[in-house]
């Protein structure tokens, strides 16, 4: 069965006469647990909830590949999932190898809290598999590919092999790709982590994250971390996610096709200094991305010469909604340096292609580029 069919089928309930086709949200804190609670699947909702289970089964299907069946755990946000890997794996004195260009909140979390508690951080760029040089004696290799916001690529299979040779676990932040676009576990990683706030759910109406693993011991560790820290997703969010996931194949196909066309168009424009999108053959990570990704993703970054040019471009566009986050139905863009924290040019814009008609998007981008160019020339 193809991915699109499997994912849509995975959101259906078993065919029992008179039962609804789709799961509804189960709102509960305690569940009935008379007498001995052993073997009762649901007792208190900080541990497990039937709506989580339905969503986790669907995500696990997506993360699985021939040869293994993944298990998934959902979290209240992407950062709750990221924190769970660090918290369940790392102990004082352990070394964590981190991309120097990792998503800033993950980097700050490690630097500000985990390093203070005795975790040793080694940082190297994503591009060129530079993290491979730092694996000796490490406990955890954290990978992000494509990286946010600079769209760097590394080779998950090669890095996982090198890490395992060094006795090190591997986690991939797979947010920009989604498990439909890239399957880290199939490429050898131990943890596939994502913010499902983005493309996975795609409507900009909830925060959610997940972790998928193959190994049952790792699953138990992460499950326990979630229960003890209370990083529990609300059942309403889990249910909204379950509804949204059925349209992921459609949304991803359309938004990634739009992203490819926008990136190709931007690459022809003289106003644009650089386009960072792994789907472009000129991208240094293109060959690896082709190998390990089914889709190159909806997100790209491109650079205009100055901050003023980038701000004018965003002001003059009618169809690019200025917002942070990405992976939604509608195209969004922002000047990323306005937040600080990343070593990027002032004129860098991160754009997330949505599902609009591509002709409208390209016309709008062209007129906004011209307006930005005119302001620059004045
Ligand atoms: N990882 C990446 C690559 C992200 O871009 C984000 C959010 O932007 C996160 C993790 C954190 O996700 P959340 O905002 O759902 O906590």
Task: Output the keywords.
378 residues; Aspartate Aminotransferase, domain 2; 12 strands; 14% strand; seven-stranded mixed β-sheet; 2 domains; Aspartate Aminotransferase, domain 1; alpha/beta; five-stranded mixed β-sheet; binds pyridoxal-5'-phosphate
Structure description:
- By secondary structure, this protein is an alpha/beta fold.
- The chain has 2 domains: 3-245, Type I PLP-dependent aspartate aminotransferase-like (Major domain) (Aspartate Aminotransferase, domain 2); 249-377, Aspartate Aminotransferase, domain 1 (Alpha-Beta Complex).
- Helix content is 36%, strand content 14%.
- The protein is built from 11 helices and 12 strands.
- The chain has helices at residues 3-10, 50-63, 78-89, 104-114, 156-165, 216-229, 235-245, 248-267, 286-292, 307-316, 358-377; strands at 71-75, 95-99, 120-124, 140-144, 169-173, 191-195, 209-213, 274-276, 299-303, 321-322, 332-335, 348-352.
- A 7-stranded mixed beta sheet has the order 1-7-6-5-4-2-3, sandwiched between helices. The chain has a 5-stranded mixed beta sheet with strand order 8-9-12-11-10, covered by helices on one side.
- Helix 10 crosses helix 11 (358-377).
- The model has no long low-confidence stretch (mean pLDDT 96).
- Pyridoxal-5'-phosphate binds at residues 77-79, 82, 103, 105, 144, 148, 173, 175, 195, 197, 207, 209.
- The site of pyridoxal-5'-phosphate has 14 residues, from helix 3.
């Amino acid at each position: 069965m193809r991915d699109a069919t499997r994912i849509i089928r995975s959101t259906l309930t078993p065919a029992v006469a008179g039962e609804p086709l789709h799961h509804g949200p189960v709102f509960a804190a305690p569940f009935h647990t008379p007498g001995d609670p052993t073997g009762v699947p649901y007792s208190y909702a900080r541990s497990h909830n039937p709506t989580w289970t339905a969503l986790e089964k669907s995500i696990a299907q997506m993360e699985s590949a021939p040869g293994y069946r993944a298990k998934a755990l959902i979290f209240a946000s992407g950062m709750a999932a990221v924190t769970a890997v660090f918290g369940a794996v790392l102990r004082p004195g352990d070394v964590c190898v981190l991309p120097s260009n990792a998503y800033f909140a993950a980097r700050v979390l490690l630097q500000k809290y985990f390093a203070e508690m005795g975790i040793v951080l080694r940082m190297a760029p994503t591009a060129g598999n530079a993290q491979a040089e730092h694996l000796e004696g490490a406990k955890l290799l954290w990978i992000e590919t494509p990286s946010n916001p600079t769209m760097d690529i590394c080779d998950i299979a090669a890095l996982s092999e090198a890490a395992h040779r060094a006795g090190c676990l591997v986690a991939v932040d797979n947010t920009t790709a989604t498990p439909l676009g890239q399957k880290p576990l199939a490429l050898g990683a131990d943890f596939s982590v994502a913010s499902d706030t983005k493309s996975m759910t795609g409507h900009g109406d909830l925060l959610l994250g997940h972790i998928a693993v193959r190994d049952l011991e790792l699953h138990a560790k992460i499950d326990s971390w979630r229960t003890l820290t209370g990083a529990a997703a609300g059942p309403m969010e889990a249910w909204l996610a379950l509804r949204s996931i059925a349209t992921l194949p459609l949304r991803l196909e359309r938004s990634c096709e739009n992203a490819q066309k926008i990136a190709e168009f931007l690459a022809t424009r003289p106003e644009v200094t650089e386009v960072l999108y792994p789907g472009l053959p000129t991208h240094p990570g293109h060959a690896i991305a082709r190998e390990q990704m089914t889709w190159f993703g909806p997100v790209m970054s491109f650079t205009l010469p100055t901050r003023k040019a980038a701000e004018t471009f965003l002001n003059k566009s009618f169809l690019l909604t200025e917002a942070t986050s990405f992976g939604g139905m509608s195209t969004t863009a922002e000047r990323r340096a306005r937040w600080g924290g990343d070593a990027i040019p002032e004129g860098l814009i991160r754009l997330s292609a949505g599902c609009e008609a591509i002709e409208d998007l390209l016309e709008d981008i062209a007129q906004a580029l011209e307006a930005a160019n005119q302001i620059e020339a004045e």
